[in-house]
Design a protein that fits this description.
Number of strands: 7
Number of domains: 2
Helix content: 55-70%
Number of helices: 12
Largest sheet: 5 strands, mixed
Strand order of the largest sheet: 2-3-1-6-7
CATH class of the largest domain: Mainly Alpha
Structural class: alpha+beta
Length: 416
């Protein structure tokens, strides 16, 4: 078994620097996972020299280290899953109790079965609690669900293996020994118990890396101020929705929203007030949509909404509801004053045979028509009078020239 212990130690030594390298990334629970990996490595090292070390060393020190590692893993998963983590005081009290019992059953009442039951029993309970916490939480973490399930399986395997150890040592009955040769069963059992912890930490590393990748993808796909989709992510999602709608013969609607007189808000309340207005506006629109479409920030105070499978009447009702909600829910500025907001909306309906680019141009024309008619209203492309269309197209053309001259905004932060 010293050979398997050496493999376990080497595996854990390889994983420890990987975990340590994640400390600066802000991954929740990483410090606890690093400490747990280090203590598990030390415990495996103690087990490797159990045949030549004194009893107090491999029994008391090894058992305490393993229980401490389990408690730190439980704390780390509590932090990672945004649950109430195990506090430092309960950990210290538990370790003191475990150490006291190991000393008692080593020198006061020499009982090997009790010593094994204490250390293995506490580790089994700890890993069972970890597995139960993952089971309750993993459906909310879809991007890393496979890694969390792997960790869950490993946690329950550790719990079962050490619970079996407690049962076989405590009762003296080996239910598998009747089917297999005792040496084979013992070897397989010890090998599984030694190598399961490196596999557990491998699952933790995969889970943490998956969380980092998912966080980066979310950061790239969302505007950091408002939380709405970024322009690129919105256009990608819109194109996907449009392709799906074309395949099913359904209509697609595009709404272009622009906060009215946003420059005045920045001038009167500063960029902090403008940022607060953008955040409040995004939250209001998202609550009004209630999952019926996707919302993206296209630049500055300009937003886009894409909906699939809706008719002109339903889109009009949604846009009117958004205008009303924005108008009736002012944002509270940092100085305690309320900032009144209104929004103008241009709407374009896209038939299955239509063009996405044409729809966005039509929505832009409709938006400028809504602005020309006094703001705080909606306008639907295709329902304008000829003179109004010409005026709106002229305004849209002038705006497009100005945008082309300035170039794309370097970021989606408050530009005033």
């Amino acid at each position: 078994m010293s050979f398997l212990s050496a493999i376990a130690v080497i595996s854990l030594l390889v994983m420890f620097p990987v975990l340590l390298s994640l400390r600066k990334t802000g991954v929740p629970g990483i410090a606890s996972f690093c400490a747990a990996c280090l203590l598990t490595t030390l415990a495996a090292s103690v087990a490797m020299v159990a045949s030549i070390a004194p009893m107090w060393f491999h029994t008391i020190i090894g058992g305490t280290l393993m229980v401490a590692a389990g408690l730190l893993m439980l704390r780390g998963f509590g932090q990672f899953l945004a649950r109430r983590p195990l506090g430092a005081l309960p950990i210290a009290i538990t370790l003191a109790g475990v150490t006291t019992m190991l000393v008692f059953f080593s020198y006061v009442a020499n009982n090997q079965s009790a010593r094994i039951s204490v250390s293995a029993g506490f580790l089994s309970l700890t890993c069972f609690l970890i597995g139960a916490a993952i089971v309750r939480h993993w459906p909310r973490e879809r991007p890393i669900a496979p890694y969390m399930l792997f960790c869950c399986v490993m946690a329950f395997l550790v719990a079962v293996l050490h619970a079996l150890r407690v049962a076989t040592v405590g009762t003296g009955f080996d239910p598998v020994g009747s089917a297999l040769e005792p040496p084979i069963w013992t070897t397989a059992f010890l090998a599984a118990r030694l190598l399961i912890m490196p596999l557990f930490f491998l699952g933790i590393i995969l889970m943490l890396h998956g969380w980092m990748i998912a966080s980066l993808r979310h950061m790239i796909a969302h505007d950091d101020l408002t939380g709405a989709l970024s322009r690129r992510a919105f256009m990608t999602a819109f194109e996907r929705m449009f392709s799906t709608a074309v395949g099913s013969g359904r209509q697609t609607a595009f709404m272009l929203l622009d906060l009215d007189r946003f420059k005045q808000i920045n001038d009167l309340h500063g960029h902090a007030g403008g940022d607060a207005a953008l955040v409040h506006f995004t939250q209001t629109v998202r609550e009004t949509l209630a999952g019926r479409g996707i919302l993206g920030r296209l630049g500055g105070e300009e937003f886009g909404i894409a909906l699939v499978g809706v008719g002109r009447l339903e889109v009009t009702e949604i846009a009117e509801t958004i205008c009303t909600a924005v108008r009736t829910t002012p944002v509270r500025a940092s100085k305690g004053t309320d900032i009144g907001l209104t929004v103008s909306i241009g709407i374009a309906m896209v038939d299955p045979g239509g063009s996405l680019a044409d729809a966005m141009v039509q929505a832009d024309v409709a938006l400028y028509e809504a602005k020309a008619l006094g703001r705080d209203r909606l306008s639907i492309a295709g329902s304008l009078h000829a003179a109004s269309v010409a005026s709106a197209r002229a305004l849209a053309g002038a705006a497009a020239q100005m945008r082309a001259a300035v170039g794309p905004a370097p970021s989606l932060s408050n530009t005033g």
